[in-house]
């Protein structure tokens, strides 16, 4: 199994530009999670999906952030317009449900975003 | 929400030493995971352990859910063990995984 795949691995952009991060979960996993990691706030859950449906987006910092999951094998996290304070490492994770979301999560390698 | 505290925050050891990392949580949990974030930033699953003890090579973990803590043991440390170790929990009635602040482990050759 290839594991969770994220792209790009690194992104450098200028303030005001649109940024799109991509994630391919492990095949067969029904839950997908987007996290952000910063030095100040540690690892934070932004949003998660179950069977392609967003379940909880209360962690999304503001309207500039949006996430979609058009099918079971692909999700995007978009920031428009980007700001320097969005600089962070963004992780995608997936897990199998077996009836709940409390199952082992597997993380992708992350996308390191730098907004100048 | 549930609070997760890890100790110690930093630990520096000589290669070959043993260590114990602790994770305390403020409320009952549905489940618990230990991760290792290596110096390249990758989050690697170590244990998925709601209760009891598990072992994987030089690593083992014990969770005592009734007393709201978990321990991660690393024996015969190697330089590749360096990085940050995170504990993360699911509270009851909450599907969100809450991470602790981590323990930064540095193994000196």
Topology of helices and strands:
The complex is a heterodimer of chains A (116) and B (109).
Chain A: E1 5-7, E2 10-13, E3 19-24, E4 31-38, E5 42-50, E6 53-56, E7 65-71, E8 74-79, E9 88-95, E10 106-107, E11 111-115
Chain B: E1 4-7, E2 10-14, E3 19-25, E4 29-37, E5 43-48, E6 52-56, E7 59-64, E8 69-74, E9 83-91, E10 97-99, E11 103-108
Parallel strand pairs in B: 2-11
Antiparallel strand pairs in B: 1-3, 3-8, 4-5, 4-9, 6-7, 7-8, 9-10, 9-11
- Oligomerization category of the chains in this entry: heterodimer
Radius of gyration of chain B: 13 Å
- C-alpha termini separation of chain B: 40 Å
- Along the chain, the helix and strand elements of chain B come as EEEEEEEEEEE
Tell me the number of strands of chain A: 11
Beta-strand share of residues of chain B: over 45%
Classify the beta-strand content of chain A into a percent band.
over 45%
Straight-line distance between termini of chain A: 36 Å
> How is the biggest beta sheet of chain B arranged?
6 strands, mixed
Radius of gyration of chain A: 13 Å
Helix content, binned percent of chain A: under 10%
Order of helical and strand elements of chain A:
EEEEEEEEEEE
Shape of chain A: globular
Unreliable residue runs of chain B: none
Q: What is the arithmetic mean of pLDDT of chain A?
A: 92
Indicate the overall shape of chain B: globular
Total of DSSP H or I helical runs spanning 4+ residues of chain B:
0
Q: Name the chain pair with the biggest interface and residue counts per chain.
A: A-B, 21 and 18 residues
* Number of alpha- plus pi-helical segments of chain A: 0
What class do helices, strands and sheet pairing of chain A give?
A: mainly beta
């Amino acid at each position: 199994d290839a594991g969770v795949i994220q792209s790009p691995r690194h992104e450098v952009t200028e303030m005001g530009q649109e940024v799109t991060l991509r994630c391919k979960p492990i095949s067969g996993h029904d839950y997908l999670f987007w996290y952000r990691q910063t030095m100040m706030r540690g690892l934070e859950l932004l949003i998660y999906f179950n069977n392609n449906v967003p379940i909880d987006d209360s962690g999304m910092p503001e309207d500039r952030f949006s996430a979609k999951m058009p099918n079971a094998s692909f999700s995007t996290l978009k920031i428009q317009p980007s700001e320097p304070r969005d600089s962070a490492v963004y992780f995608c994770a997936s897990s199998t449900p077996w009836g709940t979301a409390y199952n082992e999560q597997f993380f992708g390698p992350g996308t390191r975003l730098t907004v100048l | 929400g549930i609070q997760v505290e890890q100790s110690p925050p930093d630990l520096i050891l000589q290669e070959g030493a043993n260590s114990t990392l602790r994770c305390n949580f403020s409320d009952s949990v549905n489940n618990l995971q230990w991760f290792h974030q290596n110096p390249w930033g990758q989050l690697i699953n170590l244990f998925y352990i709601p209760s009891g003890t598990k072992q994987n090579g030089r690593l083992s973990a014990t969770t005592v859910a009734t007393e709201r803590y978990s321990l991660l043991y690393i024996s015969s440390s190697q330089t590749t063990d360096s990085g940050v170790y995170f504990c993360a929990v699911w509270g009851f009635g909450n599907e969100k995984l809450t991470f602790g602040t981590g323990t930064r482990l540095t193994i000196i050759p």
